[in-house]
Amino acid sequence: MGEQVRSNPARVQAGNTRSKALGTWVYAVGVAGIALVNLALGTFDPMQPVPDAMPGRAALAYGTSVLILVAGLDIVWKRTAAWSAAVLTIYFGVIVAILENGRIIIDQYSVYGAYFGVAEGFALAAAGLIIFSSSGAIQPVPARRLTRAGQLAFGLCALFFGGAHFVYVEATIPLVPEWLPPSQVFWAYATGVFHIAGGLAILTGIRARLAAYLLTVMYAAFTPLVHLPLLLSDPSRHFFWTENVLNIALVGVAWVVADSLVVSHSLSVSGSELRTSNT
Q1: Over the stretch 186-238, which tens digit does the pLDDT of each residue have?
Q2: Which of 38, 84, 121, 159 is the most exposed place for a label (fewest CB within 10 A)?
Q3: Helices (H) and strands (E) in the chain — how many of each?
């Protein structure tokens, strides 16, 4: 009986490997997509408010896009996952969220929408931080702390995204397909509630993995229901291209967060079982 219980952590890890890999791949596709859109258009994506008058702006846009493209592609390989995840965490969490969008918040601190770039940057950085912490590049204790930091960051971002559905409900309602029952108004508010509930669950640890998986499913549904129809309606809009690949990246972020919660919970349960079997 003791041997069977002791093998549980290994079986848990093996059972989660495929899901973790898929979540990382989706995140990688989304990040690479952001880079490819920027490279195709020779500019930064809309969540990066880099001044047009900045010297060498175009060259910087190409350079940073190549950087995140390489990091996005390399994050799926074990040998390069750690450095790629670190690059994406720093790029989205420090450069995009703080340095590029910080000045927007300083100028418009009372405007809810001014924080969108920060929230999106931190959400993308959260997955990078979790992937980095699970890459084996650091010791288990700091790895667990970094993982939890990534989970908390995404939970806070989910709260912000949900709040935006209420603050900007008039802009959210038209995004919902008219044919979707019961009504556009219902889903505009409901998806805001789902974001907030998911964020609170992740922050408190109450049904956190279920909430993160449900957020993953919701983000995945946004692509065919919201973002793809917008892109097809006007393929010339940079914003619509970016929103599609950003949403794919957020699917990956939520998936990575959910899988990190599964591992933490399962190993904790297995450890409890092991202690019980030895008493």
Answers
A1: 999 999 999 999 999 999 999 999 999 999 999 999 999 999 999 999 999 99
A2: 159
A3: 12, 0
Can you say whether the dihedral through the CA atoms of 155, 256, 90, 148 is positive or negative?
A: positive
**Three-class SS of residue 218?**
helix
Cα angle vertex 25, ends 20, 31, to 5°?
Answer: 125
- Tokens linked to 40: 């195709």
AA letter at 50: V
Question: Rounded to 10 degrees, what is the CA torsion of 182, 185, 189, 194?
Answer: 30
Domain count, the chain: 1
For 74, the token pair is 């390399």
Contacts of 11 by beta carbon, 8 Å cutoff, 6+ apart: none
Q: What is the per-residue pLDDT across 29-83, written as a single tens digit (0 to 9) for each? A: 999 999 999 999 999 988 888 988 889 999 999 999 999 999 999 999 999 999 9
Q: Rounded to two decimals, what is the model's pTM? A: 0.87
234, containing H or E segment: none
Contacts of 86 (CB under 8 A, 6+ apart): 128, 132
Domain extent, residue 195, equals 2-277
Phi, psi of 198 (to 5 degrees): -65, -45
- Write the CA distances from 22 to 25, 27, 250, 253, integer angstroms: 5, 9, 13, 11
CB burial of 151-189 (b: ≥16 within 10 Å; e: otherwise) equals: bebbbbbbbbbbbbbeeeeeebbebbeeeeeeebeebbb
Q: Taking Cα atoms as reference points, which of 3, 61, 6 lies closest to residue 273?
A: 6
Six-digit token pair at 84? 């790629």
Sign of CA pseudo-dihedral 145, 149, 150, 155: positive
